[in-house]
Predict the structure.
Amino acid sequence: MNVRSTSLAATDSDDQPVLGLTLAEMAERPTVYRSDLLAGQVVLVSGGGSGIGRATAFLAARLGADVVICGRTESKLAETRDAVVAATGRDVGVHAMSIRDPDAIEAMLDAAWDRHGKIDCVVNNAGGQFPQDAIEFTRKGWMAVIDLNLNGSWWMMQEAARRWRERGQEGSIVNIVANVERGMPQAAHTCAARAGVIYLSKTLATEWAPHKIRVNCIAPGTIETEGFAVYPPDALARFHEANPMKRLGNGWDVAEAVIYLAAPSGNFITGEMLTVDGGMAQWGVVWPGGIPDYFNVPGAA
């Protein structure tokens, strides 16, 4: 769940919280990887205009990859493209579209393959949810989250895999999911969808191994991104307490995990989920809508 505590945020010129890393920070932030690690590679990142997707696209380009980013908001994609090109000089393709539309995915992938001749890694990062008690979900709200997070991820994976198979090319998929092992109160819709992606990925990792396609997942914890804007301030103020490290992660933490799985370092890893959460899975609970009185006892995260 991409969340952060606004009390820890910097502010912009209008005294509004700045959520997540800035483009300037991504251009210069240290990385554990050598600068040519992904030279000659092409990395596609959905939801690449903000948050974890933007950090992943930036890091991949800094490591020598050409990058393709897609998302719903063209202005955010263009802003990311311009910053990445200015900082790295790498080629960045931009496609404004929704992964809920399988026809748009087909067109985007065809255009990316035509431009680059291949895609080496697909990072399925696009997704989203809103905090609400499950009993209050509308049918439209439930279907929107399931369609985006589960079906959208599936269309991306299937269409990429078909192209890899047809061309005899190897491929890697990294799905950004969520910590679902103990459930996700006030986010049951995304919990259901992300659990589906996790076990779909495990299944596909076996089915697609003959095609030399690896499929893995990353489960972020409380990660500081622009996505925090959908959560109420009283909930945000406690998010850093939901892990034993008692701090928030950022998009760069997840991006470096993506690279680990996508690069040669991950060439013998498939069907797995890497958790990047400061230990939250063992220790804390996030209440994205604010902790209910029933659970608000001393020591509760």
User: Anything to note?
Assistant: Confidence is low (pLDDT under 50) at residues 2-16. The CA atoms of residues 6 and 233 lie 7 Å apart.
